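Forwarding the complex inputs:
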Amino acid sequence: MKTNYCSSGKADIENAPIAFYSCNLKGQITYFNRSATRLWGRSPSTDFNLWCGALNVYNLDGTPLPLEEHPAVKAIQQKKFHQSSEIAIERPDHSRRIIKLTPQPDYDDRKELIGVSFWLLDISDSFQENVRQSTLSAIVESSDDAIITKNLSGIITSWNSGAQRIFGYTEEDMIGKHITSIIPESRLKEEDEIISRLKKGEKIDHFETRRIDKYGNLIPLSLTISPVRDIHGQIVGASKIARDLSEDIENQEKKSILSAIVESSDDAIISKTLEGVIMSWNRGAQQIFGYSENEAVGNSITMLIPEEKWHEETLILNKIRKGEKIDHFETTRVHKNGNKISVSITVSPVKDKKGNIIGASKVARDITLRVQTQEALERYSRNLEILNSVGKTISENLDVQEILQRVIDITQKLTSSTIGIFFYESKETGGKQALCFSGASENLLQGLLEYDFGDNFSWVHSELCLTPDIDKDPGNSPKIYKELGEKFGLKSYVAVPIIPASGKAIGGILLASNKKHHYNPEHQSLLKNIASQAASALQNSMLYEQVKELSEKKDEFIALASHELKTPLTTIKGYLQLLSHMNIEEKAALFLQKSLGQTEKLNTLIEDLLNMSRMNKGQLEYHYQIFDLRELTQEIVKTFEYSSKSHSVSSCLGEATVFVAADPQRIEQVIINLLTNAVKYSPHADKLKITLIDQDDQVLFKVRDFGFGLSQEQQEKLFQRFYRAESAKGINGLGIGLYLSKEIIHRHGGQIGVKSELGKGSEFYFSLPK
Amino acid sequence: MKEIFILEDDDNIRELIQVVLESYQYSVKAFHNLKSFNHAVKESIPDMFLLDVMLPDGNGLERCEELKTSEKTRHLPVVIMSAHVYLPQTSQADDFIAKPFNIDDLIQCIANQF
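Prediction (whole assembly, two chains):
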């Protein structure tokens, strides 16, 4: 029913391009125009459809709009008009349109409300457009990339927050400014390029270049530039998306550096998951473990770990899971070929961006060489110590048998040999060998003792000789090896001769082991060292033996000789004395006295000789007594004067007794020696002076002569063994008197010496402690 | 007259001693080795023994010990002669004289034993 309008407008409305309809207060549709029909896609029945001619109505978000909430209803109820609202209607073909409706009141003549009318604007397209616009806006704003638009003159027309972030300028700063403000001078030409291409309608994709930010920094960017067209399709500007490549580049660089480091490292750098699966494997890992990248990646890390160390992996992973690092952990791993490798490992957890531990990276350094060197050093140092003590031991020892035994024991032990044999030829054994054994077990030693080694060791060469494996090339080895090998199961041998400075081998050391190739260069050098020390020690021992023998022989000879010499002397002296008791004339008596005097001298000489030899052997016995030295001296002087016609002795002995604890015979020897010397060395004088002084702590005895005296040099040498001060011609004597006297006095704990002046004479003295 | 048995292997010394002792009114029997000495001792015993130490067939010191142990002779004085200067302390000898000796000393020594 079409009512309520000025008739003039009716036709306009009917044909208006905009949909129009009215409904009464009950909601019945009273009128609708053609456009409404088009819009609704139907002609509603004016009787039945209420408030709206559309099939269905919805809210903008797509949810159904209940009829009660229809704008028409609201308008009538609230009597509010001219306020537009937007709803969605559904057409019979199920397409939807967004419409904007504005309610208008309908009044009758009496100005009473009789209904409501609507103009319906189909705003679907613009709505979509709006939605699209807002979406686009959101995208632009939220983008990390810089999104900038400019017109064809290059003036910036939009500037998003990404651009602000990258370039530092705000939207305010840049809108209206020329794009060249962010282009470095060197690249200005690019802008021309870009513009010309844009004008052609071309898009520029992923163009890598640099722009400058607010602070003058050059930013590496990847640009994508597209032309912007107006509704006529004309290009009116350009939109520019710029991606900041700095981080990318930095990351790239970091990555390549890291890559290079990992690849060039000699250490194994391996990464694995928390389950122990190998994820990466560098060249160093291949070198150390033998597996290629293909063979390693994807496999479990346990393929590198020897079975007995598997528990280590569990420990390591546990630590890693806790975020802990393991530093310089020394352990053993296994090469592809099965060999064990000593390594030092550092394992660190690998975290993702969120900080979760996702695996571990392992750096392993091959320390085999270092470990070996360390062990070798320790061994070397130990060996050096042992060699040192060996050297000391054998050089201190002069007993041949002991030297042999010690040397072979130490050598066998040091080289971990099964047996060691020392062959030694000495004069003592009459050229036959002395054998010395050292062995690992009783049985072995027993067997060695029973074995007949023969008489010579011609099989010992002039230098160290090694037989690493008796089973190989048995023809060349000495027969003795073969026999020993068969009897004792010995496989490798090393023999070294003992050659002292004299040049001729005096023996040899033979070592044998029941392991093949047992003797390495270290063993050999050790053996050579010991052999040379043993050679010296044995030579010393030999020399010592020889010297001892000679010395003994000499002493024996002297003892014998002195005994022999005394025999005829006894006879001579005896008969001379008998003669002197007979009735003879003066001259004869004189001659006799002279002769007798000489027999005394002879006796003294023989005694001296005997004493000296006895002294060497330490056989000189002292018989200590307490006696009066004054009395002894007086007796000696008396006898002396009797036999010495040339000199008179003046004594200054004091009045009291002088008791000393000494061997009277020895002291007598000393005094006689001093007196005899005094006479000998003052042939032109005629007196001697003896002084005896009893002091608090000692007794002092002095003999003064008035003869040649002695030079400083002579004085110094005087008490030496065979020294004779050569100041008088024709003086006989062995020159051992003072030496013996010195020995005797020193034995008593006293001092002996001389004060002398050339030409004036000498004073000899000795002291005896109380 | 006291009788002295001398045991000395050197002819000259033996003769000398005999001459000296006899000149001092001692009766002397001189032996040059143990064999003849022992033989004689079996037959008869003297008043004193004078023994040398170094003998071709034995040792005077040992013989001295024997003499000093034997019933027959232990009461008799024994004097040892030697080229050595002293007598071992363990010796049972009554006295000792060193060769070469003074005749006077020898006579004195012998006289002291009686």
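DSSP finds 21 helices and 28 strands in chain A.
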